[in-house]
Write a structure and sequence with these properties.
Radius of gyration: 20 Å
Number of helices: 11
Structural class: mainly alpha
Helix content: over 70%
Distance between the termini: 40 Å
Largest sheet: 2 strands, antiparallel
CATH class: Mainly Alpha
Number of strands: 2
Length: 345
């Protein structure tokens, strides 16, 4: 109803605030219905379902803003994907480790599954976001069409291989580690929804995604104006998008950490990071056929330093299979550094 009432109109400030709230509600609704479907298919299949749903929202927002923004949004895909990687690998991971360690003394998880996920994230991030800065076929941090096609195919192949590994071949690597402190809450053992309820949620999920895409297009001028009014760089729009779509993932991961199911939290974090890169870049590559202007994917020097530090710290975190509050604090400080430098580059 809100989408129909505001489509194609210039919004006053009060109306723009209302649309922003409804947009956030549509995102939460979409993720809720994705969780219902995920609960129906069971663990560890649920994490990819939720990650893909969140990534669909992210891609929809990126494409919508790029279509409406023109050539000025050439770096929006890069900024949003990089922000998603930093928020998931530092924000969600750090918060989950900190909450789990405070609540249960030690955060315990499966090193094999988390290490495999992190290795895949590091590879697709390098292929899609780092290499464009150093290729010479095009001036600037831009792939040539052939290079972009290779990066898109490689991202899809790696994402498909990871999902197959997570859900079929080695699914036990991605299940929670049994511990004496695990909170066996009623929610954890709730009966899965019926097929009818899952089908209803699937339909409502599609409706919510349509609402997100439409409302994002309506709200895009207000988002860009708000970032400009705050004096932030235009690239901060990507951070806003990533923060919006990853908020439900953050809540779900934090709840899992408090129940001493850190593996679920890490599945959500690394799975979302991988889906963000592995699905966004191929989609943007296809969309670039009709989008105006260049598609700049290469990271700057500051961003590459943050990405490299994040990969090294995350590797040292997941290899032992357990972590303390210190590791959580380190990741959260890295997130704070990213947000600070996004505002003050």
């Amino acid at each position: 109803m809100v989408l129909g009432a505001t489509w194609g109109r210039e919004l006053a400030l009060a109306i723009a605030v209302v649309v922003a709230l409804v947009l956030a509600g549509a995102v939460l609704a979409a993720v809720h219905h994705a969780e219902v479907v995920a609960h129906r298919v069971g663990k560890p299949f649920g994490s990819p379902v939720l990650a893909v749903a969140v990534t669909v929202i992210e891609v929809a927002l990126i494409v919508t803003l790029m279509v409406s923004g023109g050539p000025e949004t050439a770096t929006l895909a890069r900024d949003t994907v990089f922000a998603a990687v930093m928020i998931t690998c530092n924000g969600i991971v750090g918060l989950s480790l900190l909450l789990g360690a405070i609540r249960h003394g030690l955060a315990v998880f499966n090193a094999e599954g988390s290490g495999a996920a992190l290795a895949t994230v590091a590879t697709v991030a390098t292929l899609g976001l780092v290499l464009p800065t150093f290729t010479t076929s095009r001036p600037g941090p831009e792939f040539s069409p052939t290079q972009l096609a290779f990066s898109a195919v490689a991202s899809l192949v790696l994402y498909a291989a990871f999902v197959l590994n997570q859900t079929v071949r080695h699914r036990d690597f991605f299940l929670p580690v049994p511990t004496s402190g695990t909170d066996d809450s009623p929610e954890e053992h709730a009966a899965p929804p019926t097929s009818r309820a899952a089908l209803t949620s699937l339909v409502l999920l599609l409706i919510a995604l349509v609402a997100v895409v439409g409302l994002a297009k309506v709200e895009s001028p207000a988002i860009e104006a708000g970032v400009a009014a705050a004096g932030f760089p235009p690239s901060f729009v990507g951070v806003v998008i990533a923060l919006l779509v990853l908020l439900p993932e953050t809540i779900a991961a934090s709840r899992a950490a408090l129940r001493n199911r850190l593996q679920i939290s890490l599945n959500l974090a690394f799975g979302s990071a991988l889906a963000s890169i592995g699905l966004t870049i191929p989609t943007i590559a296809i969309a670039s056929i009709w989008l105006e202007g260049p598609l700049l994917l290469g990271l700057g020097s500051t961003q590459m330093v943050l990405l490299a530090l994040t990969v090294v710290v995350a590797a040292l975190t997941v290899v032992p299979g357990r972590a303390t509050r210190l590791q959580g604090a380190v990741h959260l400080v890295l997130l704070a550094a990213f947000l600070f430098l996004a505002v003050n580059p």
